[in-house]
Amino acid sequence: MANKRNGGLFIPLIKMIKQWIRNNNLRKPIKSFHIELLTDRVFSEYSIENYPYGIYSWFYVMDDLLRRNSRPFIVEPEGYEYVDNYLYQKPFLLRIFKNKIDNGLRLSDVAINHWLKGNEGIAVAMFKNLFGSPCK
Fold it and tell me: Distance (Å, rounded) from C-alpha 21 to C-alpha 80?
């Protein structure tokens, strides 16, 4: 449903985010399902116009969500427990994740500004750096 709601860009964007997770050595500590639910939460409020805006929006909203929430807030689909509880039980891991999100936001902010100014080559190079592999 989220992929259809976002014109088919949702699933590829999740794959990009997961590549960012791998590039930042967060794959083992950060659960894949958690990332999927976070991404669905982000793009239930924002629509994905294109990948540069989608990437920037994801980091922007993630940064905001992590700053505003001092305890678990992503409820599993059946509503019985919090998917992100494991993260809040490990303050050091949470701090690392927040720092990585903050760094990603800063880089994607610079990249999107280049994109808006028509410097697409620079923006794409910055996004490639962010993900550690070519963006599609």
Answer: 26
Q: How far apart are CA 99 and CA 35, in angstroms?
A: 16
59 token code pair: 């980091």
Residue 82 backbone phi and psi in degrees, to 5:
-95, 125
- Reported as a single tens digit per residue, the pLDDT across 38-94 is 999 999 888 898 999 999 999 999 999 999 999 999 999 888 899 999 999 999 999
Measured between alpha carbons, how far is residue 45 from residues 57, 103, 125 in Å? 10, 22, 28
Q: How many CB atoms lie within 10 A of CB 27?
A: 14
